[in-house]
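Quick review question:
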């Protein structure tokens, strides 16, 4: 039985993120990260976390964020605003579920950096008002770029994120398949396997800035769904990365790196367990939960076909109403229940199930508007403002 990690419930940031991920690594489990595209999918994930006694990661992709704001919105900041909307929803409701939640943004390729910049702008504004960033963590996926450029860009962003204690996830080596408009289906197979030297080069560049970062190292992963055996996953390579870096830095810890697993759909239980035992603390889940959400709807439609052919008229009579069947709250709920069950499967496979007993609040104890700005000292704010101005002038 794992002793639960001593972190608050609701969205956690900063030192609490580090504490939770270290707890996962030390106790041999990983936290599932679910891509969410609506308040409904966010709620399904939160409900599952409470039901299966697990911390959880909720993440927005670029395309998912566009869906959050509305597909018809073509504003250049649409995806950043959609991500902020999801984050504000999760921050508002997460405390009621009684589990710790990491708010994350998923793959950001070089062409999507304006989206990343927008989210960081929101983090900084939120930090100024509330003393913590809006998001817990962000991911940069510059794996399509040369390693030197990939790492250099990550360094610059990490310097901006570190003062707010935002976790950085980066990817080196390529995950195959297609995800959110980035297509690696025809990539050279050798690039699907990251070397220990590549992983260490990331550690060497980022660790002087801070310790709040993780690495998605490729070991044959492929986005999307596939039958076990159709892809050559080699999770044992991850332990080699740990051993290489441990020797390089003379670490006392056997697994000094926080690792992340992408493209896990279709992986065998043994492959997942091997990855987790090598220091994977987070695994992305998207394709399987997309299917589960649809499958709940599909089954409901199949079971109630004759009640879903018109607003009135069903086997009970030509004038019998069908509102109780086509009301979105009915069939969307079936989708949520199905998705939640699949979330539970991931929690069990990753070992996070049962690692955190929910601390649900007493009814009415959480304020309806639960956002409390930090108290500011006008004199200190003025001094800080002048200092920044001087620093800006000197920098020029």
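Suggested answer, residue by residue:
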């Amino acid at each position: 039985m794992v002793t639960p990690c001593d972190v608050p419930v609701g969205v956690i940031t900063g030192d609490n993120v580090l504490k939770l991920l270290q707890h996962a690594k030390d106790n041999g489990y990983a936290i599932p990260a679910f891509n969410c595209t609506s308040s409904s999918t966010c709620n399904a994930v939160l409900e599952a976390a409470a039901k299966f006694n697990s911390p959880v990661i909720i993440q927005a992709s670029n395309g998912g964020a566009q869906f959050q704001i509305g597909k018809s919105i073509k504003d250049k900041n649409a995806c950043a605003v959609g991500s902020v909307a999801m984050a504000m929803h999760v921050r508002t409701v997460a405390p009621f579920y009684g589990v710790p939640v990491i708010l994350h943004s998923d793959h950001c390729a070089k062409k999507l950096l304006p989206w990343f910049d927008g989210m960081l702008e929101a983090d900084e504004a939120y930090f100024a008002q509330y003393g913590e960033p809006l998001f817990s963590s962000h991911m940069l996926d510059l794996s399509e770029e040369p390693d030197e450029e990939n790492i250099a860009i990550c360094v610059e962003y990490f310097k901006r994120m570190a003062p707010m204690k935002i976790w950085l996830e980066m990817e080196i080596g390529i995950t195959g398949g297609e995800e959110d408009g980035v297509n690696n289906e025809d990539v050279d197979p050798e690039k699907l396997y990251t070397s220990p030297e590549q992983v260490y080069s990331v550690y060497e560049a980022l660790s002087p800035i801070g310790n709040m970062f993780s690495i998605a190292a490729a070991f044959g992963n492929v986005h999307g769904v596939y039958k076990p055996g159709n892809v050559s996953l080699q999770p044992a390579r991850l332990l080699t990365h740990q051993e290489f870096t441990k020797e390089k830095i003379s670490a006392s810890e056997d697994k000094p790196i926080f690792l992340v697993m992408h493209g896990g759909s279709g992986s065998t239980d043994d492959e997942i367990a091997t990855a987790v035992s090598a220091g994977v603390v987070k695994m992305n889940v998207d394709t399987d939960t997309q299917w589960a959400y649809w499958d709940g709807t599909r089954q409901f439609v199949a079971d109630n076909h004759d009640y879903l052919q018109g607003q009135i008229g069903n086997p009970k009579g030509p004038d019998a109403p069908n509102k109780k069947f086509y009301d979105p709250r009915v069939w969307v709920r079936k989708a949520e229940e199905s998705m939640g069950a699949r979330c539970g499967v991931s929690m069990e496979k990753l070992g996070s199930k049962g690692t955190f007993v929910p601390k649900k609040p007493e009814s009415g104890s959480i304020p309806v508007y639960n956002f409390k700005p930090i108290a500011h000292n006008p004199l200190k704010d003025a001094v800080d403002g002048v200092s920044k101005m001087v620093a800006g002038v000197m920098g020029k």
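Why it works: DSSP finds 13 helices and 13 strands in the chain. The mean pLDDT is 92.
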